């Protein structure tokens, strides 16, 4: 019987590491087994494993703070915390022995997961379903908490987290990690979970890293292996921006609807002092002076939160308020959020204090310095050029007519259908949403109209020419119609995933037409979500007939394109050669 092989990472807790090594040796002796332990300490590596030992090991125990080790690729690996080894070393070795008889990688594993997306509607729940199916495929046990638009559902309990072998975070926005200190954590976006839940879980098993006890308050970029999806680069910037947008949305929605109702009650001059005290005037104050005033600070604050965690919120929101004060608007808010976030991130890394003074960093030092740096840069460097840029952009967009407007609408519309809830879709959506703060509402109308047409077109297509769709697709078409009316573009994903090269171009064509017509006809939308259900609200939509025409035209174009390119299916449901219509 081969020796037990273990590696202990204790570069910040050397004494704990040595105690854990002795505990494992004693427990192994009690089991009548030999054990070889490699210990990583601040002074270096003690008792390193030789190549022959590594090659002969069928399974490996990794304890403490250790990144993925290429020496153990292809071997069964069990991870444990230092505390688990110190508390019950024999139980940990028992788990390791049990892993040897597991039928496959991941079988019997206990997994907890969280899924979340910026709007908290479709991708959140589709990712949860993908993970559940993936866990079932590999024989693992999983519990998924969805952090949707109305808060957390199926919240994980402390007992479930304590019993978990692995934590998987599939999210397109910042997720609080404090509950998972000491656990193996792997982070990804929602799309891999939707497309291949089993593959994502296998990758998590191989690559997850232990989240140390202090990481729950550590900026995302400083979390190392525990957060691979949060690394810098374009993906990181996108995720930070989407986190800010997701927290800004409720202010935009509530404020926009209240302003629309105020105009309906008191006319277009409801904000004048002559109407003071009326219900319309009061609703306008709540929407415009209350909710809308907080849009840019919320955007900036939660961009900074995504980058630097809680210490970034105060500097980010302060920068957002300054952006609104000096006329830099949403562009200034975005810049303020990134400035505040990365400034606090740098400060947190650069400032080293004794443990007795560590408590001053999050409540005094980081907020004070972060607010100062962000505010000074906004007033003296960023503010004026950004305000001039926003004014020029606003003037250009408001002055767009005819072909220019149609081209912009077509581009935004096409982007909504390219990946249906992915980064390109969300970029177009964020563009339209943030412009509402600058009182430019035409792009938002084009974005929502174009985002509604893909599910609507597919739903109608499954009814008009059912012989080009499988029974499952025809059934999904019923739900797609409701999702389309609700502006949930993700309702088209199951159809696009099955036949992407025919479906996606057809949907892009229709969405581009819808967006172009919206912009060309000057359709305006003051609220960023809700689909058809916000259309009856007075003044929520400017040029309502134009919106309806664009939606119907875009849907019709996609339906016709699908009719042309989708082949008929044989009776058994297998695709055959494309036949003449």
What report would you give on this structure?
The chain has helices at about 15-30, 50-55, 80-85, 90-100, 120-140, 160-165, 190-195, 195-205, 235-265, 280-290, 295-310, 315-325, 330-350, 360-400, 400-420, 425-435, 440-465, 470-485, 495-500, 500-520, 545-565; strands spanning about 5-10, 35-40, 45, 60-65, 75-80, 110-115, 140-150, 150-155, 165-170, 185-190, 210, 525, 540. It has about 575 residues and is α/β, with parallel strands linked by helices. The chain has four domains: about 5-100, Rossmann fold, CATH 3.40.50.2300; about 110-230, Response regulator (Rossmann fold); about 235-380, no CATH class; about 400-565, no CATH class. It has a six-stranded mixed β-sheet. A five-stranded mixed β-sheet has the order 3-2-1-4-5. A two-stranded antiparallel ribbon has the order 12-13. α9 runs antiparallel to α11 and α11 (about 295-310) runs parallel beside α13. The model is unreliable at about 100-105, about 215-230 and about 570-580 (pLDDT under 50).
Summarize, please.
This protein is an alpha/beta fold and about 575 residues long.
**Helix share bin:** 55-70%
Strand order of the largest sheet: 8-7-6-9-10-11
Q: Summarize model confidence as the mean pLDDT.
A: 82
Low-confidence stretches: 100-104, 214-231, 572-581
Please work out how many helical segments DSSP would assign: 21
- By DSSP, the count of extended strands is 13
The quaternary structure here is single chain
